[in-house]
Amino acid sequence: MIEVGYASEFVRLYSKLEPGLQSQVKQAISLFRHRSNHKKLRVHKLHGREDGKFAFYVNYKYRIIFEYLDRGNKRAALLQVGDHGIYK
Questions:
Q1: Where are the alpha helices (DSSP H) in the chain?
Q2: Which of 31, 49, 67, 78 is buried most, with the most CB atoms less than 10 Å from its CB?
Q3: Which InterPro entries has this protein been placed in (predicted)?
Q4: How far is CA 77 from each of CA 11, 14, 19, rounded to the nearest angstrom?
């Protein structure tokens, strides 16, 4: 299981989401913590300005950006949540 921490930016963005979407985010985080390689999450490495970071899908529109905090990928910091605009 992956240990997850939350950046202040993630908490701020999460608090602005509608309750139904917040529920979907919680479910995606739970799945990530227990089965980070699940195909539904579509975990992928980011490039460019976000090089070294990763993202996974909450749903078709929303994503979570994170980074691993150790070499074994057992700890991760969730950095942002939002639509594709969070990549800008």
A1: 8-15, 19-34
A2: 78
A3: RelE/ParE_toxin_dom_sf
A4: 11, 14, 22
